[in-house]
Amino acid sequence: MSLNEFLAALDALAAEAPDRIAAAADLEAWTEVRNALVGRQAGRLTEILAGLGALPKEDRREAGQRANAVKVGIEEALDTRRAALAAAAATSGPALDLSMPARARWIGAVHPVSLVIDDVIEIFRELGFSIAIGPEAEHAWYNFGALNFPADHPAMDMHDTLYLGDEQVLRTHTSPVQVRTMQRYRPPIRVLAPGNVYRRDFFDPSHAPMFSQIEGLVVDEGVSFADLKATLSHFARRFFGASTRTRFRPSYFPFTEPSAEMDVQCGVCGGGGCAVCKQSGWVEILGSGMVHPAVLEHAGIDSERYTGWAFGMGPARTAISRHGIPDIRILYDSDVRFLEQFAR
Amino acid sequence: MNISHEWLQRFAPHGRSAEQVRDLLTAHVATVEGFERLRADLAPFVVGRVVETQRIPETKLSFNKVDDGSGTLLDVVCGAPNVTVGATYPFARSGTRVPPSAKNPEGLLIEKRKIRGFTSNGMLCSAQELNLGADADGILELQTDAPPGTALLDVLPVGDVRLVVDVTPNRPELLSHLGVAREVAALTGVALQRPAELQALPAFGGTTSWATQELLVGGFTVRVTDAADAPRYGVAVIDGVRVGESPAWLKACVEAVGGRSINNVVDATNYMLHGFGQPMHAFDAATLGASTVLVRRARAGETLVTLDGVTRTLDPSMLVNADAHQAIGLAGVMGGKATEVSASTTRVLLEVAEFAPAVVRTTRRRAALSTDASYRFERGIDGGATAEMLALGAALIAAVGGGTVIAQGVVGTAAAARPAVRLRPSRVARLLGDAVPGAEITALLRGIGFAVADAGADALDVVPPTWRHDIAREVDLIEEVARLRGFDRLPDALQGARPGTVPDHPLFTAYRRVRDALVAEGLHELRPLPFTAGAGEDPATLVRVTNPLAEDEPFLRARVLDTLARRAEYNLNRMQGNVRVFEVGAVFRAQGRGLPREAQHVGALIMGARRPVHFSEPQPPAFDAWDAKSLAEVMARAAHPAAAITLVPGDGAVLWQIEADAVRIGRVERITLDAPVWAKPAFGVELLLGDVHNVPVAAPSTNVHDVAPVPATHREPVRYRALPTTPAAEFDLALLVPDAVAAGAVERVLREVSGAQLERLELFDEFRGAGVPEGTRSLAWRLTFRHPERTLRDKEIEGRRVQLLKSVEAQLGVRARTN
Ligand SMILES: [Zn+2]
Which of A134, A272, B132, B647 is within CB 3.0–4.6 Å of A177 for a Cys-Cys bond? Predict the structure, then answer.
């Protein structure tokens, strides 16, 4: 091949390229044209360049420069055409029916009881609480003895227990975590302990043999019932609304003293009395009290120096009233149509 | 405990309304959980005002216009002589039922009717018609300014109120009107008194005799075998009793607390139980063999027919009353049928005792019979009042049944005074966060029967009364001060607090990470019950509940997927085939005789469509094993972010074993369900988040505060890699891979041979069929190479391609696909 033949082939390609590029009506055709003109495998330019080696050495420089100029010209034209086609593609064609639904994907959901636990944790986190976890299968000592339950006493009747052995139980409350935490960590202690607890209660619309509980525990020097009252009332206002009123009623738990249950004013009737609050105007939210000195002592903590307070609440009850769920068993059945209602 | 508002006032004339008493008790004593007006039958009656009246000639009747607040004046015919214009009366609108009477046991239904040609549309009522008294001479004129239409019960203070008090197990003295009245009296500042009906009882002339073991009372030998079972056992003999109906006041008391009047003798014992919290039992003295009353343990196999007619077989853990021959009652629980007081009884032997809580609890449990008496004995009655209660109970029976108390005596010794408990006002202030002056503390405690003596600076010696079994330490007294003063009075401003020393438990943070990841994947969190039938598991490795709720599900689960599979079936039964669920929860494996091994697992189950239907994809594909594998990787990385996660191919039902840093932590599997034909295959992933340690932290009464906490797992931070400045080169390799050769093995070779410049290796196609020999498949990879400093030359790329093909052929017998 001579230089002239080589250049003629280049010229022919340069002459033909603009029309072919302009003729590409869409991006697919454009790709074909590009491959035909400058494609690495079978493009015309590639074929012409294959002849470069056959030229006399003194001609190769000029041939290479010309070939490169043609290549740059074609590529520029290709880029311009591509941009034009892309712009046209974006605005042409039949208009989208924008009322049609988005491409769908499954949306997951957190269980409504977990949502309540999350909310409780969030509020106490602001107050410097961290999260403790304990076993569900427990030694009777952690579940009862350490918590000052008198042996063989009617107080035990409040906890109908599922046993795993003589001295092993499925914990009846999250309070054993109090003792484990106090044995492990030096005060100041500020923890929340969410977890499942078990009672020998048969399933009915308002009882379940396993349910979740959230325990709270504070131990330090100079901690008083006034702190308990202030913190839990603050929690109630954050959780139920800034104007929420609370009241504390005397109660009895073997592991706290003084013990008190906290009610909030019924959100349904505003305190006037209704079916939800059994006409009392108040709804029970949690049990609480000052940690009994015997419990501190069982955990190896000096009960003269340190005082503490604790509370326990049942998030399922709150979930039920918050969402208007008529039967607690719905929380356990796991019907996906129920769970989907909490998708977010 | 049912408390009658009227009865309570006879102990403590507090002058408060029932509502006020309810609020007072709830705030300071025990929660009142029920509030029932006993004259609910009067609820439909309203205040009616007579606006006009005229006599109906030749009758005693009047024709009246009555304003009942409805806006329309009603025509009402009335037979009473005292109808006065402008006055108000109880009014029954038509449709109201008048309370039952002897004449009309169903209660007269008031309806619109004609009387002597005059329409009557309701009734003006007399006191007798409303069961409010005997006065039938005229209608009851109301002394009220309330407008017509007001509910009668709002203006007429009639009808007792029953307060249902939730008495906690530590306060058994509140299981009586006396106990509740003591608190109300203290809170309202009135003196506690003995009810009027008990103030003029026939006095017993003699004295109450005491003996430690055996005593003769009115001709009866009374003996207690073991004083530990019955520290005080009192007996009175009442002669000449006529068993019959109770007087109205006594009936009213029994009925006010929800009981049923039986006869005067039994009603008197029930009065003492509900009034004073002292259980009593009356025997027909004539039925007692050899005039003997014993308190002893039952003999093995001994039988007794109790008052409820049930024949019970006893054992020596149970305590009985017995005569010389046989058991006559379950001590502290229920009397026997054979010795029951009947219409023919004339001599009554009254038992007033204090039985030990533990033995009554055992007896009650063995007999599976809980009674008002056993409930009180189990919690502890006032041991200091036995003789007083005996005298009062005997006198009451004599008063309501006629007869005379001929003897009374107690076997046992008087209850010892309780030891004093030291109380420091400074400690009260510290625990409550509010200073309470010593004088106020003293007054509060004395108000409910505690003896308080000054014991120097910042010290009070407090002796609790015999009815309080719950006061042993200083803090017990502080609780009394707090509640009597009222929790309302304590300050409640948030104070600063020191930060705690406890780190977040890693299982909690792992739960949150995994949950977030799975919710983002479109899964729903479950919180189901963890009990299982244990199908497919070796029962010896499972943890069995000793007293399971259901015998067909007696085990705790060992795997979360066991639970999730049952929940998936539940959904399939409800025609729900798209199930994407997960749970983070505890699983259990038996280990010897101790507590089980407990761990937190996350399990996830997917079944059904991979995506919801969309017009661009009318039939979305169903989840397959590759979705499960992807989910497993997501879960494992979220659970163990610091670990290298590998999925090792399994066999059969187990698709992959999941490994974290080469330790097996879970698996991916096909789930076999009891599923209808239309159901899609289900896949499960389960893996370990971590063990839950249940060994004791430290011995009782000790701690391990000096042991340094285990540091949290350190996670290497991501190191920045310089962004590429050179172009990448890529090519595809289509290989014919024999079925026996794993794609993973091919990839391993490709990576090894390619070296560090291989940037990406993507398996993008699998094909079997035309052009691909039987027993092989075509797998195609795209390889992306990049040199960090320069552009790779075409020749280099081609050289690599050839080398890769050679290597896979040499090492694995894999050739390039040529067609
Ligand atoms: Zn309400």
Answer: A134
User: What does CATH list as the number for B729-816?
Assistant: 3.30.70.380
The verdict on A68 and A182 lying in the same domain is: no
Instruction: Tell me what pLDDT residue B384 has.
Output: 94
With CA atoms as reference, the chain A residue closest to B597 would be A137
Which residue among A101, A183, A292 places its CB closest to the CB of B703? Answer: A183
What angle is formed at CA A155 by the lines to CA A153 and CA A157, rounded to 5 degrees?
90
CA B518 to chain centre: 33
Query: Would the CB atoms of A189 and B567 count as touching at under 8 Å?
Result: no
Protein residues with C-beta less than 5 angstroms from the ion ligand 1: A 266, 268-269, 274, 276-277
Q: Is residue A96 part of a domain?
A: no
Number of neighbouring beta carbons within 10 Å of residue B709? 10
The parent domain of residue A209 ranges over 112-342
Q: Does domain B41-155 have CATH number 2.40.50.140?
A: yes
Q: List the 206-245 stretch of B: residues with Cβ below 8 A of A.
A: none
The string of pLDDT tens digits covering residues B13-46 is 999 999 999 999 999 999 999 988 888 788 889 9
Which overall architecture, per CATH, does domain B2-38+160-188 show?
Answer: 2-Layer Sandwich (3.30)
CA B644/CA B44 separation, integer angstroms: 76
Q: Which residues contact B90 (CB under 8 A, 6 or more apart)?
A: B45, B46, B47, B48, B124, B125, B130, B139, B140, B142, B152, B156
Please tell me which of the candidates A113, A133, A179 has its beta carbon nearest to residue B505: A133
Q: Which of A61, A91, A121 delimits the end of a domain?
A: A91
Tell me if A26 is assigned to some domain: yes
Structure ipTM: 0.87
The CA A326 to ligand 1 mean position distance, Å, reads 16
Cis omega (within 30 of 0) on the bond before B596? Answer: no
- Residue B157: the pLDDT is 67
Examine residue A44 and state whether it is found in any structural domain, yes or no: yes
Q: What residues in B contact A236, CB-CB < 8 Å? A: none
Element (H, E) at B359: helix B357-367
Which residues between 424 and 443 in chain B have a beta carbon less than 8 angstroms from any beta carbon of chain A? 430-434
DSSP B612: -
What is the distance between the terminal CA atoms of chain B, rounded to a whole angstrom?
91
Residues A268 and A326 in one domain: yes
Name the fold adopted by B506-692. Answer: BirA Bifunctional Protein; domain 2 (3.30.930)
CA distances from A290 to A135, B130, B182, B489, B580 (A): 24, 52, 26, 17, 44
Residues of chain A with C-beta less than 8 angstroms from the C-beta of B29? 250
Q: Which CATH class is domain B421-487?
A: alpha beta
A76: in domain: yes
CATH number, domain B204-412: 3.50.40.10
Closest-CA distance of chain A to residue B170, Å: 7
B 328-357 near A (Cβ less than 8 A): 357
CA distance B558 to chain A (A): 13
Task: Check whether residue A123 and residue A235 sit in a common domain.
Answer: yes
Domain count, chain A: 2
Q: In the predicted model, what is the mean pLDDT of chain A?
A: 91
| A142 and A65 belong to one structural domain | no
- How far lies B303's CA from each of B313, B334, B359, in Å? 4, 14, 18
* SS percent in chain A: helix, strand, coil, step 5: 45, 20, 35
pTM: 0.85
**Span A160-177, pLDDT tens digits:** 999 999 899 999 999 999
Nearest to B527 among A111, A181, A250 (CB): A111
Selection from B276, B279, B280, B278 nearest residue B192 by Cα: B276
